[in-house]
Specification:
This protein is α/β, with parallel strands linked by helices. It is built from 12 helices and 16 strands.
Amino acid sequence: MNYKEYALDNPANDINLISIPGLTIKLNKNEEFLKLEAKGGLKRACTPLINMINSRLKEEKPALITENYIVASTWLPPIPSKVFNRLLLAEIQNTLGRYIPETVSFEITRKCKCKCEHCVISGGEGELDTSTIKMVIDEALDMGAFIITFTEGDPMLRDDIFELIEYVDKERAIVNMYTPGTEMTLEAARKLKKAGLYNLLVSIYSTEPKKHDEIRRLEGAFEKATSAIKMGLEAGLLVTMCTHVSPKNIDELPAMYEMAKSLGVHEFSLWESIPKKPDDPILSDLQRKQILDMYQYINSSKGCPRIFANTYFEGRMVGCMAGQRWMHLCVEGSVKPCPYIPFSYGNVREESLKNIWKRIRKSSHYRGERYTCKMHEPAFLELVRSIPAGESTPYDFRLLEK
């Protein structure tokens, strides 16, 4: 494993993770599960975080257990590791109101053989070159980010994808990558592993190949996606099967989970669908309860992949991450609070990522505790409706404030 970890078989069963003025956090291997323990004057500030992590470690099965580390979720760094320590430090800062963009996602190419209607690839022209993307990666890591995600179009169609993955400092961040799987080969999967990819994410939209192909608008897309999952697993990668949940497909989730189980993925990841247009249907509270019930039942059961659901993670645990724990770089350099919000707050070709993050944080839309996606809030959707007809997105939010 490329991510720097400590050995869990330490005879003392006690690992010092963080030691800063006012706070010490240790990892204790207590019987059958791991437990974080905090001491010092700042203990009270980070107690909710510690309790949350300990609850997950004790009550929910992890995605992977090895002799030297545990992966609680494929979306999180291994425990223990230097990257996990950065997560703890970031969350302490967030508790104190100094929010850090923990996850920075990168659109790195427009190229993709799929033509999905739900694609959120940005408008504008051109793509960022290798040196600019590396510069932004460095900025993100310096700001405290510990998850770097490469995403749409299809990163595998960018010639420098292996170079970019390798470039990320693995002592500071894990690297995730979304792909529809159309370009995957076993050789490519092994190169991704060698470059240091942590988690391969492949989206599946139905257990029926025809339905998946229709959504992807590409014949054979289902077969390629399932093959990519198998090749990622054979190469030794963490592999996550993802899907977007909408009122149209929520009843398919049990069958999709069985498919994830049969494929042998480490985690089945559910993300609530985001309206492409303000009047698109969204999940009801009853449907969200259906997801939460499935989440709790599966994750308390043994011998099968765990489930990640942003309905739980953002709806119950940490709140909506847009503009608080998440920042998204568009293919032409503009920056958004998350991939789904159609507003830009600056461009890395013109100013630093740090300055753009400050601008996002000054906006009242991304302050305070929020357990509802901004793109599900009627008031925010009214702002989306105010984007002039014919304008491409992301739209410069500053133009609406004039």
